Structures are given as C-alpha cells and as structure tokens.
Amino acid sequence: MGNIFSPRKGLGTLDFKNSIAVVTGAGSGIGRATALRLAGNGVTVVAVDLNQDSAAKTAHDVNGVSYVVDTSDAKQMETLANKVESEVGPVTILVNNAGVGMTGRFLDVSLDDWLWIQNINLNGVLNGCRAFGPYMVKRKVGHVVNMSSGLGYFPRATESSYCTTKAGVLMFSQCLRADWFKENVGVSAICPGVINTNIINATKFLGERNNERELTATKKLFAKGHSPEVVAKAVINSIRYNRAVVPAGVEASIGWVLKGMLPMVVQDLATRSKFMGGV
Ligand code: NAD
C-alpha cells in the first residue's frame, strides 16, 4: 500500500484502448458528448439512459451497446452491472452523469419533488458506485467520474434542492476517492457551469419560478451556455490525470477559486444579492 503522496498505480496509464466505459444519461447533452469523446479515444462505450431511442442512437454512433435503465433504481443498476460485466466485459470507467433539474424556493418544493430529484441526482450516483464498485475494487483498477455541478459549491436561493443533490455528489466523490485510493480506483467530480443541453426540458419549475417569463429567460441563458464538449474534455482529463475535482466552464472555475478564497461573510452576502440569484 502506498502512502498519501504515492500516485494511483494506474495514474496516467489507464489504457483507454482496452477500457470499457459505462456512461449514464448517455442519450443527451453531456452524457452523449462524453460517450462520443471516450469512443474517440478508443474506449468501448456502454450507453445507459431512461430513454431507449436516444440511448440506442448514442450506442449506434459510438459503435457500442445500449441499456435502458433508471439509475435511481438500485436493483436495476445492480442488474445492469452484472449484465454488462458478463455481456460486454470488465468495466474500467464509470461515468455517473444522469441527472435532472429543479428550480423553486424551498417551501414551494414538495417532499415528493425533493425526493424525486434526490433519488436521481444523488442516489443515482450512489447506485452506480454500489453496483460497479465491487468489480473495480476487486480488480484494483478503474476510474469513477461523478457529475456534480458548479451549483454543488455555489448556493442559490431558488435551487436548494438541485444544489443540495450536487453538493452531496461532490462530497461523496471526495470521500469515495479517499476510500478507494488504496484500491487503485480513482474518483473524480466534475462541476460544470452553464452548458447548452436539453436539461431545461427535464427541469421542474416550481412556485413563483413556474411562469413563461422564467422559462424563456432560463432557456435563453442555457442556449448561450458552453458546448457539452467542454465537459466531455474535462471528463477525459479527470480520468487521464486522476483529478479530484474539475470545474468545467469559466464561471464554474471562477466560482471554485472564489469559494476557496472569499471569507464566508462575503460568500453569504453574495448569495443573497440579486446579481447572484438571490430572491
Ligand atoms: P440532458 O437532459 O441533456 O441529459 C440528461 C440525460 O439523462 C437524458 O438523456 C435523460 O434521459 C437521462 N436521465 C435522466 N434521468 C435518468 C434516470 N433516472 N436514469 C437514466 N437516465 C436518466 O442534461 P445534461 O445537461 O446533459 O445533464 C447531465 C448531467 O450534468 C446532470 O447530472 C446535470 O445535473 C449535470 N449538469 C448539467 C449542467 C448544465 O448546465 N446542463 C450544469 C451542471 C451539471
């Protein structure tokens, strides 16, 4: 066993060409771009999504295979892991990317809504790690990439549900990284800023946020966002260099640096300001 300064044995040597990657939410946006980029690096890609047609399209485009699975269902994920291991081969890369959005002040978020987003965004990531982790840990090779968000460290008054799930993913990833360090399994969290994908169509607008003006303004904002390719590149680099946390997009990078630099009193004031999304 190495000490805390010794690099992961596979660091820089995880052979993409002999890798099999499972990407969840691979039918759209960041997941699809990641699947394409991994395939471009010679990785065999398993595209997983709730949506059968989009999963099949990505699988076709990467010359891989697709499975229709709800990542929030632990049993389905366990079955998926066993199937992929026996039907495709040993999984070395797991990208827990599937996720949805929600905007609304806390008291406008019902318990059902809260559990809905928590089950997909946070528990979906845990389910992936619980299902595929035992195989990676047993073989002592692999890399897990979990999709957090810039909102995982940047609080917003109207996104407590989404921010909480993403902060959970970020903290979980850092804990798991330390846990699996001696197993030679790397763990990275990616924190994208605003990315131009279909996520707004899978976002619940609640309470006073649920109106045409808000929907149109948010759609406009995301249309100006970065290409999902920016995040796909961050995913590849996180695996190649075994990075702990990787912000993707300039606003996410600035937020990450400021988070580490600014005293809490300034962060608190900023979060309440209108400019930063305060109500
Ligand atoms: P997207 O809507 O374009 O793609 C998400 C994909 O996940 C869809 O194909 C959808 O069918 C699938 N999916 C949703 N729930 C699922 C489930 N339970 N099981 C299986 N598949 C499921 O969105 P995106 O922007 O590409 O989002 C991907 C990830 O990136 C999410 O976790 C999101 O929170 C995160 N993210 C996105 C942004 C952004 O600005 N778009 C920013 C930060 C983080």
Question: What do these coordinates show?
Answer:
Helix 1 (29-40) packs across helix 7 and helix 3 (74-87) runs parallel beside helix 4 (111-139). This protein has helices at residues 29-40, 52-61, 74-87, 111-139, 160-179, 212-223, 228-240, 250-261, 264-272, and strands spanning 20-24, 44-49, 65-68, 93-96, 101-103, 142-147, 185-192, 203-205, 245-248. It has one domain (16-276): Rossmann fold. The chain is an alpha/beta fold and 279 residues long. The strands form 2 sheets. The chain has a 7-stranded parallel beta sheet, sandwiched between helices. The chain is globular, with a radius of gyration of 18 Å. It contains 9 helices and 9 strands. Strand 1, helix 1 and strand 2 form a beta-alpha-beta unit. The protein starts with 19 loop residues before the first strand and ends in a 7-residue tail after the last helix. The structure holds nicotinamide-adenine-dinucleotide. Residues 24-25, 27-31, 49-51, 54, 70-72, 97-100, 120, 124, 147, 149, 192, 194-195, 197-199, 202, 225 line the site of nicotinamide-adenine-dinucleotide.
Could you write a compact summary of the structure shown?
By secondary structure, the chain is of the alpha/beta class. It has 9 helices and 9 strands.
